[in-house]
Structure formats: C-alpha cells, structure tokens
Amino acid sequence: METNLPIHLIVFLPLLGAAINGLLGRRFSWTTITAIACMASLVPFILSVQAFFHMRETGAEVLRQVPLFTWFATGTFSVDLGFTIDRLTAIFCLNVTGIGFLIHMYSSAYMKEDEGYFKFMSYLNLFLFSMLMLIMGENLLLMFVGWEGVGLCSYLLIGFWYTDHANADAGKKAFITNRIGDFGFLLGMFFILYALNSQGLPMSLSFEDLQANAGQFSELATIIGLLLFVGAAGKSAQVPLYVWLPDAMAGPTPVSALIHAATMVTAGIYMVARMNFIYVQSPMAMTVVTAIGAITALFAATMGFAQNDIKKVLAYSTVSQLGYMFMGVGVGAYAAGLFHVITHAFFKACLFLGSGSVIHALHHEQDTRKMGGLLKKMPITGWTFALSTAAIAGLPLLSGFFSKDEILWKVFSNQTTLIPGWVFWLVGVAGAMCTAFYMVRVYALTFTGTYRGEPEEKHGHDAHGHDDHGHHHGGVKYDDIHESPWTMTLPLVVLAFGAVFGGLLGLPHWMPGHPTNQFDHWLEPVFGAAHGLKFLDNTSLELGLMAVSVGLAALSALVAWHMYAGKGKHLPGQIAERIRPVYTLVFNKYYVDELYAAVIVRPIKAFARFSWRVIDDGLIDGVLVNGPANLVHLTGRLVRLFTTGDVQRYAFFVLGGVWLLVVVWLAE
Amino acid sequence: MTIGLTHYLVLAAVLFGIGSIGVLVRRNAIVVFMCIELMLNAVNLTFIAFSRFRGTMDGHVIAFFVMAVAAAEAAVGLAIILHLFRTRKSLNVDEANLMRH
Amino acid sequence: MEITFQASDLWGILPALILIAFASVAALMEVFARPDQSRGFIAGFGAIGSLVALAVSIWQWTGIEGAYQVPLFGKMLVMDAFSTFFNGIFAVGALLACLLGGRYLREHKADFGEYTALVLFAAAGMGLMVQSRDLVVMFVNLEIMSIPIYVLSGFVRKNRRGAESALKYFLMGSVASAVLLYGVAFLYGMTGSTDLVAMREAFDADKALGTSLLVKVGMVFLLGGLAFKVALAPFHLWTPDVYDGAPTPVTAFMAAGVKAAGFAVMVRVFAVTFGFDALEFGADGKGWVGLFYALAVATMFAGNLAAIPQVNVKRMLAYSSIAHAGYLLVGIITGAFGDLGSATSAATAIGGNSAVLYYLLTYAFSTFLVLAAISLFGKDGEEFVHISDFAGFGFKRPFVALALTLGLLSLAGIPPLGGFFAKFYLFREAMALQKPEMVWLTLLAIVNSMIALYYYLRVIVFLYMKEPTREVPAFESKGAVAVMIVALAAVLLLGLFPDGYVEMARRSVESLALR
User: Fold this and answer.
1) Which subunits count as partners of chain C given 3+ CB pairs below 8 Å?
2) Does a structural domain hold residue B48?
3) Of A660, C53, C131, C260, which is least packed with CB atoms within 10 Å of its CB?
4) A165 falls in which pLDDT band (50, 70, 90)?
5) For residue B84, is it within any domain?
6) Quick one: which of C426, C490, C494, C415 has its CA closest to C453?
7) Cβ neighbours of residue C256 closer than 8 Å, sequence gap 6 or more
8) Contact A655 B23 (CB under 8 A)
9) A560 and A552 in contact (C-beta within 8 Å)?
10) Percent of chain A with pLDDT over 90
11) Helix crossing, C135-153 with C259-266: angle to 10°?
C-alpha cells in the first residue's frame, strides 16, 4: 500500500552522510564527523522502527512510495527506481540500521585516533546506503546495484589500513571470490530475462512481477536458482567461495562486526529468501543450497579449532553459522533461516565488538595465547562475551538455541530435498558440537586463567597483528589494562541483551502460550510460494532431537572448558549440575583425557590444520592470491609475444589476419 | 591467347602480393611506403579491369579518387617519415620500437 | 556512379561543412597569430565551431521524421537520423578534444593552432564517413578522417614516442586502407556497383552470388580494413603503441571518435546492408557470422588479458578499448540477425544496433572522462602515466580523482553509471535472441567484463590507497575540468536516465532501413 512514511529517506540519509563526511570531513572536528555519521544511521533506524510498527498495527504487507522515477523502459522491459518495505525487508531494515547505528557509535571511539577517521565513517555510511539499497530495492536490478555497492565498500574497508601487505592480499582475495559470485548473480538475472522473454512475458524484474510470473519458467528454475546461489555463496562466504571472509578480518574490527558478521554476509540468505518462489520450484536447487550450507557449517566449524587469532576464530564461526542459515532457507524453512540471521546478528556482532574491545585494550594484540584473565579487568566486555558465547553455543533459552534448533528440526523434518533430512541434521549437530567447543575455548583462553601477555615475556610479533596499524606493541602490562569507554561498552550491553532475549521474537510453537511462532507468522505473506512444502509434524520427536543436539553441544562445551580453563570449578553451576554424571565419567581420569586427546582432539586438530594449511593456505592462496600475480606474469609474456613494438610484425598480423579469415570462412 | 579479365586480376593480385611482402620485409620507411603505394595501384588495376569487363565507367572514376587519396597520404606520410628521421637519424622502421609490450 | 549536385544537398552535410569552415579559419588564424601569443584562443574558436556543428546536428536530428533518408549528391551520401546521431557524437568529441588540447599543448611546448584545425577536419571526415552510402566515398572520407589523426598522433614534437606513434599508425593505416579498398574492388567487380543499396539488390537478385570466392574475399578484406580502424584482434596490435605515444587529448579523440565512426560504418555495411538474410551465404549459417563470433571472442580476450599486466595506464586503456570493441561486436552480430525491413525481425535489428549506438555514446564520454584526468599529468613532452604516478592522488586533487574513478567504474560497467546500462542493454538484446550461441557469447562477454574490473580497480586502489613514491607534475586546466564536468554529467545521465537516449538510439537505427 502507498504510505506517507518517508521510505526513501531511510535509504538516502546514509548517502547524504557519506557525501558530507567524504567531501568535507577533512576539515571537520571529531565531534562533527561523529554527529553526522551517527545521525545518518540513527534516523533511518527510527524511521525503520516507525515503519515496522506501522505495519504491525495496520497489518499491511507492503509499504511503498511512488517510485522516484522510471530508471528505464524500453519496449516491454522496464525498471523503476523505487524502494519498498515488505515484511522481510522490515526485519532486515531494523537489523541493518539498528546494529549499524550501534557500530557507528562504537567506531567513534575505536577509530578515534585514526587520521583517516572521516574517511572511515564516510565509508561506513556509504556501506549502510548500499546495504539498504540491496534490501529495499523493489527489483532485482536495484538489488544488484546495492550488491555491487556493498562489495565495493567491503573492499575499501578491508583495505582501510592499506600500508599492510596482508590487507592488500585480503582485499584481492575478497575481490576475486566476489567477482565469481557476481558473475553468477548477473548470469542468473540474464537467465530470468531469457526465461521471461521465451514465455512472452513482460520483462519486468520487480519482485512482485517475478513472483507472479515465476511459475512459468519451471524448467529454467533450477539453473536460475543455482546461478543466483553462486552469487549468494560468494557474498555469504559458502564453500568453496568462503575463503575471503577469514582474511577480511584484516580490516578494522567494527567493520568485521558490521559487514562481515551482521549484515553484508547475510545478503546471500536474503537473496535466496527473496527469490523463494524460484527455489521452491526446484528440489534440485534446494538440495544444493542445503548441502552447501551443511558442508560449510561443519567444515568451517572444524577450522575454528586451529586458530589462535581471536578474530579468525570468530570469522570461521561466522562462515559456519551462515551455513546453518543456508540449510534453513535451503529446505524451504525461510523464516527459520532468517530468524537465525537476526539472532546471529546480535550475538556475533557482540562477540566481534567484544573482541575489538579486548584488542583495543591490549593495543592491537589479537593472539589468544597472549591473553587470559581479562574478565577481572574488563568485566563488561567479559560478561557480554560470555553471554554471547552461550548464545552461539546454543545454551537453552538463549537466542541461538531457539534459532539453531528451529533450523535443525526443519532440516530433519523436511521432505523436499533429494538427500534425506537426517543426513543434514547429523552434519548440523556435529557442527554445533564443534561450535560449542571452539567458542568456549576462545572465551576461556581470553578471559579466564592468568594473563600471558606481560611485556617481560618474549614475544613473537610477527605471527599476528592484522589489526595493527603502525603501533609498536610489546605487550601491555596486566595492571594497565582498562575497560573500554562507554561508547564501546554500551553497544556491547545492548547486543548482549539481544543475544540473550532475541529468542523471544520467535518462540517456537511448543513453548507454552505460543501456539504459533510469531516470527513465522509475521513473514508468512512473503513466503506464500513455500506453503506447499511438506514438513514432518511431530512435536515429541522435535523435542527429543533437540535434547540430543543440546546435550551433545553441552558435552563438547564441557570438554573445552575442562581443557582450557582447568577443572570444573569455573563451570557455571547449572550446567555442571545437570550433566554431572557424564562429566565425572568423562573427565575424572587422566587417561581419559589422553585417550580423548589421541582419539578425538588430535585427529580433529590434524584435520583442522590440514584443511586450514593445505586447502586454505596452499590451494586457495596459491590460486586466488598468487593467482593474479601468476596471471599478470603469464599475460605479460603473452603480450610480449605479440606486441613487440615492431611495426612490420603488426602489418604481418593485419595481412595474415585477413587471409586467415578467408581460409576460415572457406573451410567452414 | 586473348588477354581476359582473369589475367588482369591475377596481375593485380601479384602486384598486391609484392607490395605486401615489401611492407613486411623492407626496412627503409620510404621503401615500405612505396610498397603500400604499389598495393594501392594493384587495387586501381583491379578496379579498372572490372570496369572494363562490366562496360561501365565507375571503376575508372574510382581509380582517380584513389590516386588523389594516395597523393594526400604521400604528402602527410613523407612529412611523418621526415620527422622521424629528424628525431632519430635513421629511416629504419624496425628501430622504431620505443613502445612495446 | 552518378554524381549530381544540388544546392539543397549542402544542407545534408551542413555539420561537416561547418567543421571544415571553422577548421580552415583556425588554420589561417595560426598564420596570423603573433609568435609569442598563446594559441589557446584558436582551440576556443574550434570549440565554438564544434558547438555550432553539434547544434546543427541536433536540429537536423529532431527535424528528421522517423525512418527517413535523404540521398545527397546522387547516391553518394545520405542524411538520416543515424548519421546525424553520429555527427552529434563527433561534434562533441571535437569539442572535448579542443577544450582538452589548449592547455595540454602549452604545457608540452607544442602550442600550435593546427591542432584545432586537424581535430575539426578529422571530425568532419568521421561524419561524412558515416553519411556515406557508397563504399568508395566511404573510403575517401575514411582517409579524410585518418590523415589528420596520423598527424595528430605525433603532434608533440618534443616527444620521440609521438614521432614513432605517428609513423606506426600511418604505415599500418595505409596498409589497412589498401586492404579495405582491395575488398571494395572485389565487391564492385562481383556486384557491378559500389552503392550499398545497389549491392544489396544485386545479392537479392542472384542468391548464388554470395557463395562466390571473390565476394567472400572482398567481404573479408573490407572487414579487415574496418577491423583495423576499430582495433579488433588480430588487427589491434598498433593500438597500444599509438594510444600510448599520441598526446592524451588525441588518444581520447581517437578512442571516442575513430572507434565510433568505424562501428557506425560496420553497422551500416555489415549489420544492415549485408545482414544475414541478405546474402545466400548467410542463409545456411555459414555467412560472416562465424567470423564475427571468432573476432568477438578473440578481441575480448586479447584486450582484457593484455590489459592485466600493464603498468602504463594509457596502454592499459588502449587494451581496454580493444576489449570494448569486442563487446560491441556482440551488438553488431545481434543486429545482423534482424532485418529492418522485415515485420518479424525488425525489433531484433533495432535492439542490437541501438545497443551498439548507446554503447558507443557512453564509451565516448567515459573515455574522455578518464583521459581528461590523465592528461593533466605531464610536462614538456613527457607524460606521467605509470600507475604508481597516481598513488595518493585521490585526496590531493579530489575532483580530478573522482572524475577518473567514476570514468573507470563506468568503463568497468559498475551501476549506476552509463557503462553499466550500456553493457546491460547490449547483453540483454543478445540474450533476447534466444540462440544458444549468443547465450555463450554473452556469457564470455560477462566473464570478460569481470576480468576487466581487476585492472580498472587497480588504478583506483593506487589513487586512494597508496602513498606517493615521487612528486609528479600535474597542471591545472580549466578546459580539462570543463571536459570532466560535461563527461561526468553525461555518464551519470546515461546511467540514471537512459530511457530518452535509448529511444534516440532506436530512432536513429530505424532510419537505416534500405530504400
């Protein structure tokens, strides 16, 4: 329905902020830059909240304004430059602008000392603009414009501290994998046009028309779905295009939180959900999406073991969680997948900002082996980090528990994919166990035990320090560590609150007093096409499986706690009490530890090291990072072969060329 | 044996071929340029032969056009070659390779 | 061949006449100017002449009703919306080249008034070349275009690279002219005419004609000559050397003007007159389409792969211009599948060919935008175009850097700039043909435009993300700023409000129908 709400403002205010800061920011004071940048994200957030409540009250399914103008209209083909908010968009808007605002605020302190502060804030605003364009654009082409825009901002922000060679490499990697993804997206778009054209349908790319017409291109749905998924996999870091995300952590930490955890990387999930009407037509495409999601979820989780860099752990964890989201949208449980997007945004942004707070306090130390015992010095950071860790590990009643188990159940119970659901379920549970393990490990290493980073100790400064931009760091004395300023801790508290209570947004149907899942209900109009998909309906089985997965994850968390934080004395009482028998059985004896180390930990570590070193470093770095260098070398030789500077050689190619063409033609 | 269209065409083709080869192998810029003129004259011969064969005057007129264009080209071309000679004291085209790759 | 003359014919070539008149006066002004006086005012005079020619072109274009062709001078030339559209592009090209040249030449101690005259003569030649209906007249006009450009490419006499550039371009261009003309000779011999319409009629009347050896040789030689001018692989090897050695404003004029003129002739000759259904050899699928596929693929890859290792930005742009020629061929092929005269396939012809026109329009402005920024780097015959010379420039001269960035992004096809829409339109028309081979060709073109992003973005990275290694002289120029503003506005307009311009291109193509 038409609305008076200023929808366009939501999109364009961040652009305005970016323009003002980018062009004039050099002359502004820190306060002015901060005020402009934060207002450019806060006002859109308020407007999004307003739009959200407006939709709730009126029950409207779509809010739209008159399109700004018709971008182009030739023949039967037209594209409007217009923005709409439907129920899916509303959720994403809240997520992007809300977390966006918090991260702007956080950055104002984190990046305060940086001489490029105005540039940084301007890029952040530009990113918000592109992201909002991506989610609010009323057609696929506008979405693509935003898609390219966020890619560009990500590239700029990864390379923000451009003096570092590693950052340049990371930017390059991100660039190439995203190109592959964009190629898929573009091709998918052209195939949609192709399909429309071959059916004689009007060539409109607006989502509304696509939804209406999608039924007509049944046999092309698979190829379109798969091509678009290539795009989604590139942007959302799925196997095999995940490789850029861990390296993207070279950028400043707020960027990692905003772009590489909470918003941009979920664009792929958004796209698959948005194009649900195409995916539901093709069980093949759905199976591929789910399978890739499942493989990524487990594979990336195992990689989390071998990392000592706190941000790298979080990065692999993000890749893995994105895999869960794709499992959800892959089996057609769109609401479940999107619910995980939201809860993940809370706890992962909180974890990233928490790690940023630690890194900030330790003067750009990122190696967890040089941390420890920080909980006492940084209680707010530590506790919010702990809560978010519990959420991501799936501690019952926290947000991650609801969203992840919803996905796992849907995956188990789906009857659409060509591979039976229980296979994916098993993979998902294994991934959840790994997640619980490495997250607890990171928390334990960082916040418990004794501090291992005293400057007297001998340091290897070289193995880390991606976040380093010129500071000479020889470690920080334990006594000198302080909690971060309120502009940094407030976002942490807000996000931790979300991480704990976010689950309330979508309480599952089996909770007393909640016959329907509110989140599902809210999104129902968007996913009309998915109504035909069949799922098992068996609440007791659902609860049973949930108990299994939670139990296994808890077990794995306990193992981690035991290994990295000493005996059970540090365990939160409640969990320890519940699993006491298992706990004593497993950990009482030293040889069990050894057995465990030999049978489970070592193979896993070996595998993790293998997958990280060989696949990531060898194959991926070899091909993707050194690839361009080799390509440059190779093409350089090619050019030298032809363009010799000798004009007679050129003439030979002209005269030879025509005769070659004649011969080709006659031989044809 | 009567001399027919084919003979003229073959002669023109041979001329064109000699011109082409000259362009490819001679080093002196002026000789290269003369070879290009030879190619143009081969074209003229082709035009005139066809014109005669078809009994129209078009080809003859075209030959004059081509000559005029060739003259204009020669004027500019010789100036360029002269300029090159001034800057590097050599007329060899294979030495003109400051720019490559 | 009947050459007739009526006074009213002059109206049809008015833009060219204006350019020639201004060019002649500009050449005289050089003679009468004081030796110590700057020749900037002559360039200004040339700019005024280009503006007048542009205004006349626009006036003529709006005055032409639908698919209407006016034959001029017997059947030597025509005036139609198509040629008028291109006259407009060439006038803009001359205008921008004049604006860009004045200050550039003074900085490089090559301040001669002939620059203006030569630019205007070349623009007149381009316009007449597109207006030609007779292949021999087309050849003559091609020379009117080329000869001034040979001179211009070696215009800065202090620069040894310039002399070499001019020699290479001249020798290669002459060879290509001879090849082209030889092709025309064969076609003339086989069809008995050099008039495009008459040739088409001859092919229609005798379907077997198209399969004869001499026709095939003639077609290929004609194609080879044109391919040289628009730099299709393997006829492209001169491009980097000449683009690199020529003064940057001339490089821009060549990239924008010569390429547009060459493709306009390709549209008129290949896509329309000898379109696939015209010739018997087209009907069995063994027409020139196979050659064009091969040329398109070879050109795209040759341009893009060779651009990757370049550290000289002008050479990089030269190779990128080759790649763009490859994309443009996709449009020519698409257009050739349709026939403007047929009720069923006219839409295809209009779509494909108008995509070519639109692409050329955006390409011209994007190129000028980029090269205007680059032309500022240099002094006394030496240009600073190594990629590292641009390091850290992004925040030193924000506007110039922004113009350069947006120009490169437009060339790369990033939305919402003109280059994106041009590519989008082109590829969409190609896909709309519903032919598997066109889908594959489009796919390769998209792969190529993805590769191209690599080298375009690398320049941007240097602009904004690297520290300067040495001090590079870069002068200020109001003319260049004016060029950048015009080109920037055009690139944005073409990207954001493409409709009107697409309509313009479509109407221009409609006027090409043979009669």
Assistant:
1) A, B
2) yes
3) A660
4) low
5) yes
6) C415
7) C89, C93, C96, C363, C364, C365, C367, C368
8) yes
9) no
10) 22
11) 170
Angstrom distances, CA of residue C292 to CA of C131, C268, C325, C332: 24, 15, 12, 9
Is B13 domain-assigned?
Answer: yes
CB distance C314 to C385 below 8 Å: yes
The mean pLDDT value of chain C amounts to 89
Contacts of B79 in chain C (CB under 8 A): 151
B78 interfacial to chain C (CB closer than 8 Å) = no
Q: Do B101 and A645 touch (CB under 8 A)?
A: yes
Contact A249, A256 (CB under 8 A): yes
Distance between CA atoms of residues A122 and A515, nearest Å? 46
pTM of the predicted structure, to 2 decimals: 0.83
What count of other Cβ atoms lies within 10 Å of the Cβ of residue A649? 16
Helix (H, G, I), strand (E, B) or coil at B91: coil
C237 and A186 within 8 Å at the Cβ level: the answer is no
Q: How many domains does chain B have?
A: 1
Domain housing B13: 5-93
- Residue-wise pLDDT for A141-153, tens only, equals 889 989 988 888 8
Q: Cβ contact (<8 Å) for B36 and C178?
A: yes
Q: Is C453 on the interface with A (CB under 8 A)?
A: yes
Please state the φ and ψ torsions of residue C70, each to the nearest 5 degrees: -110, 115
Exposed/middle/buried for A567, CB within 10 Å: 0-12, 13-18, 19+? Answer: exposed
pLDDT given at position A515: 75
pLDDT at position A575 is 47
At residue C212, the pLDDT reads 84
Owner of token pair 């750009």: A364
Token pair for residue A380? 């707010």
Q: Which residues lie closer than 8 Å to A43 by C-beta, 6 or more apart?
A: A9, A13
CA distance B101 to chain C (A): 8
Kindly write down the DSSP assignment for every residue of A587-641, as one continuous string: HSSHHHHHHHIIIIIHHHHHHHHIIIIIIIIIIIIIIIIHHHHHHHHHHHHHHHH
- pLDDT tens digits, B5-58: 899 999 999 999 999 999 999 889 999 999 999 999 999 999 999 999 988 888
The CATH number for B12's domain is 1.10.287.3510
